[in-house]
Amino acid sequence: MAYNSKPAHHEEYQRKQHREEMKHQVLTFALMILFTFIAFGMVIMEVDTYFIIPTLIILAIVQVAFQLYYFMHMKNKGHDMPALMMYGGAAVALLTIITFTTLIWW
Amino acid sequence: MSTAVAQKRGLGAAIWDYLTTVDHKKIAHLYLYAGGLFFLIGGLEAMIIRIQLMKPDNNFISAGLYNEMITMHGTTMIFLAAMPLIFALMNAVVPLQIGARDVAFPFLNSLGFWLFLFGGLMLNVSWFTGGAPDAGWTNYAPLSTTSPGHGVDYYVMGLQISGAGTLIGGINFLVTIVNMRAPGMTYMRMPLFTWSVFVTSTLILFAFPALTVGLFLMMFDRMFGSAFFDVGLGGNAIIWEHLFWIFGHPEVYILILPLFGAFSDIFSTFSKKRLFGYSAMVFATVLIGFLGFMVWAHHMFTVGMGPIANSIFAVATMAIAVPTGIKIFNWLFTMWGGQIKMTAAMLWSVAFIPSFTIGGMTGVMLAAAAADYQYHDTYFVVGHFHYVIVGGVVFGIFAALHYWWPKMFGIKLNEKLGKLAFWPFFVGFHLTFFIQHFLGLMGMPRRYWVFLEGQGLETGNMISTVGAFFMAIGTLIFVYNVIYSAKKEKKADGDAWGTGRTLEWAIPSPPPHYNFVQTPLVRGLDPLWVEKMDGKEGMTPAEPLGDIHMPNASFLPFMMSLGTFIAGFGFIYQVDNKAWLIAVFAGMGILLGSMLVRSVKDDLGHHIHKEEIEEDIKKGVAK
Ligand code: HEM
Ligand SMILES: [Cu+2]
């Protein structure tokens, strides 16, 4: 960080990586904005609710995934433990929801 | 070292030291003192219950007070005694076992303790303000939502506050174990105690939010006129039961797993053998944690979930017996052919095996859903869970305290007195609870104030009460031992038992407040043993001797917890008089103000200089 004594080819490699990263982020950002427009558009144009609800949920899930994997860097190395914890928590939450919908309000 | 310095500075300074400490070893002491005190209070409540049930139609305490007794006994023992005592062990041992100088978030560690303590105090204040909670430790609606007075409000606020502390503690240990292991300490080289604390912390992270949500709904129903559990207004009382047990069943594994880990370390140390089937033990621990989330509805077989749900949960529950069985056999094989040293710690551990196995067996009986219609809410269930909780958790805490006492306090507990405490407790435990299975099968329901004459329940209840007195005697001898040993026992070695295998035994007892002079290099499972077998004195360092960075003490965690404590009272009493909202705002003000101070004031910690460390090494207090 302080004194940069890395060899030149390493620096070159890193710069390339950063450019790559930047490209991904811009791309996902554009996609997320597009998804938001689609979501709003469908509601404004009063598309059939049976179509709208599942589509909105799918779009939301994709956006969350983009957020986590691209903006919060979960796609990079060393994020196995956070991933394990998040999926574990999601599984418990899902189990709770299934219980409440099947066992309580049957 | 630091205690000695504090003593010279006088009592006030020592108290201030503990109020502001962020050192995991001192926080372990705090958890131990507070948990021990609540254990004695909960024990006293248990004795009152047993005296009431000593003979038929007894009038020792009134029916209402009896309900308060059983509620507070259960709540105190689970949340205010067992949990903090486990946190005491986690704090005292885990950073040492992974070669770290403190936990990942020392400030949060202190905050977790103070929240727990203020939550516990809040619950017990209810005794003096018109009645304790009286709807059972499970606090089922609508019994709880319709309970008059403020007792149940104290349950809700007290557990909410102490539960926040537990959640903070759990997250802290997760991060500590993931991030702070010494070089070379891979996951599959972690001691079993650290492994089980890791799994337990994960369970805390996933299970406690269910309790938090349940308590919030309960709080709104009782204090702000909502109707989540009120059938008359379209609510559903069963929601509470599900939320409670989604938390509650993982909770019983949160309690037992750390002690499974402690037993594993104790068996291998005192058998002078490496643990039999290490990877199977790790696998079983993880599997128990995983399955622990799939079985909560076995507490609700008689609610009317229907035969399909009942069968699924019955099979899932029975499946847990398999990894548990793996563990039991591995402990037996660890001892098999070992050079066994029957210390007090070992005595508690050996006694645990048959006691806990009986509890597991009655558990499988209860898991047979059809049969549970007979057992449910009888003394059979009381017998079952005391066999697993006392025979597992409490025996484990005693064993682990004997084992790690020298590391925590620099002296061993007296071995003779330790064994003298064990025998009455062990005999009393079986006297008290074995007979309760039969009382249950004969039809004695749990949580009833009196039982009637001439139904054949007299002898069994008398035996049970006598047993409880034996357990009380055992506990008092243990307390006496603590005081006696503090006065009479001489200083323990770093490797106090001579056969230590894990990193905590590589440093002095008690360790200096930075634990390790140099972070050790871990070269295998049981790292200290590996070095001993290579003929080395201690660990190979992984870094040169240098300055050590340590966190600063802080009074803010105490203030933040005090704030929530005050706000808690405000919430409870604003139902009667809106003027109490002032307490809510004042309390929240203290909380948020402290948080603001914390975030605007930079606290970068301090350095311990190389010269000081060299001085400590010369004096023999660091290694
Ligand atoms: C083989 C393992 C186990 C099985 C199969 C099992 C099964 C069960 C079942 C079916 C019940 C419900 C009985 C009823 O209310 O009718 C129950 C209750 C209970 N179990 Fe276990 N259990 C096991 C281990 C444990 C452990 C390790 C602990 C704690 C350390 C524990 C603590 C409890 C408690 C506290 C209750 C009663 C809660 C209450 O209603 O107040 N159990 N168990
Ligand atoms: Cu259970």
In short:
Chain A contains three helices and no strands. With 106 residues, chain A is an all-alpha fold. The model of chain A has no long low-confidence stretch (mean pLDDT 84).
What are the key terms here?
heterodimer; A: 106 residues; mainly alpha; 2 domains; 3 helices; B: 623 residues; Cytochrome C Oxidase, Chain A; two-stranded antiparallel ribbon; 2 strands; binds protoporphyrin IX containing FE; binds copper (II) ion
Task: Explain the layout of strands and helices.
The complex is a heterodimer of chains A (106) and B (623).
Chain A: H1 8-44, H2 49-71, H3 80-104
Chain B: H1 2-9, H2 11-20, H3 24-52, H4 63-97, H5 106-125, H6 151-179, H7 192-223, H8 238-271, H9 278-291, H10 307-335, H11 344-367, H12 369-375, H13 379-409, H14 415-441, H15 458-488, H16 527-533, E1 548-550, H17 556-573, H18 581-600, E2 606-608, H19 610-619
The structure holds protoporphyrin IX containing FE and copper (II) ion.
The site of protoporphyrin IX containing FE (HEM) has 25 residues of chain B, from helix 8, helix 10, helix 11, helix 12 and helix 13.
